Structures are given as structure tokens and as C-alpha cells.
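thought: user wants a sequence for this fold. calling inverse folding tool.
action: design(structure=
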């Protein structure tokens, strides 16, 4: 058994070196020049990672639902220095999507960029448990504001649209 101890230590040491190399690569990747800044190393990409409350309102194309507002919770994730965002939306059921644990769940992916003091979010919402068409969102956060607002629309039928807002948006 004593003869296997050096072999075990050697495997353990190689694993430690590999883990340190992997950690260094992750650190270097997070320090890369931020995307969406035109390659300017001094321009920071805004970080909007967090959990926020929001709502969307159905537009006129939705006869029975037109003007109805639906509250949602949105959780945004963003790697440091990246303009890419991902996240999850949890909302009440209004006839679209499928209920799971009392809510309709969606995944989102998109971008967050800064231009002339404004923060612009664009993302695609894809329902998790149904075959509802994707919904595209685009909105802006004015300088000094905490309320991002914009429009949403169906990718395949842009006339099916409405307004949305995300409140208490915190930019890091």
C-alpha cells in the first residue's frame, strides 16, 4: 500500500495544477475587453445582474387582453465585462404558456449595452414548458433612472406587441 501513495500524490498534484490552470483561464476571460464597446478598453459594459420586478401590457392586437398588465419577476445574469445577458422570467398565467409550480416560466438571452448614457437591453424570451412563439423585448434605461421601459413583440408577428417595464433597475 505504501508504494501506491506516491502515485496517488502524483495524480492529486496534477489535478491541483489542472484546477489552477482552469481558474487562471476563467480569470483571464473575465478580464477581457468588454464586448459592445467598440474595442475601447476604457469603456465599461454596464452590469445589470440582479432580480427585478417588471410588467408587460398587451397591445391592441389582443382583443380580449388589450390593455391588461401582467406582473413578472426577472432574474438577470451577466458575466463581468460581457454585454451578454441570460436569465429567467416568472410570470402569472394569462392564457399563454403552461403553468409549472403556479407560474409560467421563460428563459431569456440577449444583450446589455451603453450608449450616450442610456442602457439598452434586448432579449429573447422563450417559454420553457410550451411551444408558444418566442417574444422579443427591447428597452432603454435613461441616465439616472431606475425604470427601464420599452416594447415587446412576437418574432413571427410583429403586430402582436405591447409595452413593458422593469423597475428598480440597478446598474453596476
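)
observation: tool returned 172 residues.
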Amino acid at each position: 500500500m505504501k508504494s501506491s501513495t506516491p502515485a496517488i500524490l502524483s495524480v492529486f498534484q496534477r489535478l491541483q495544477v489542472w484546477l489552477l490552470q482552469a481558474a487562471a483561464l476563467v480569470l483571464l476571460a473575465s478580464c477581457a475587453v468588454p464586448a459592445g464597446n467598440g474595442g475601447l478598453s476604457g469603456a465599461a459594459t454596464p452590469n445589470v445582474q440582479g432580480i427585478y420586478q417588471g410588467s408587460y401590457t398587451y397591445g391592441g392586437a389582443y382583443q380580449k387582453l388589450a390593455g391588461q398588465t401582467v406582473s413578472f419577476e426577472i432574474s438577470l445574469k451577466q458575466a463581468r465585462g460581457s454585454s451578454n445577458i441570460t436569465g429567467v422570467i416568472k410570470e402569472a398565467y394569462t392564457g399563454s404558456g403552461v403553468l409549472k409550480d403556479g407560474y409560467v416560466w421563460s428563459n431569456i438571452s440577449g444583450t446589455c449595452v451603453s450608449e450616450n448614457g442610456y442602457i439598452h437591453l434586448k432579449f429573447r424570451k422563450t417559454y420553457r414548458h410550451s411551444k408558444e412563439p418566442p417574444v422579443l423585448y427591447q428597452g432603454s434605461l435613461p441616465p439616472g433612472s431606475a425604470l427601464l421601459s420599452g416594447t415587446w413583440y412576437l418574432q413571427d408577428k410583429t403586430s402582436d406587441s405591447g409595452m413593458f417595464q422593469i423597475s428598480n433597475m440597478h446598474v453596476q
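thought: summarizing for user.
answer: Here is the designed sequence. The chain is about 15% helix and 40% strand.
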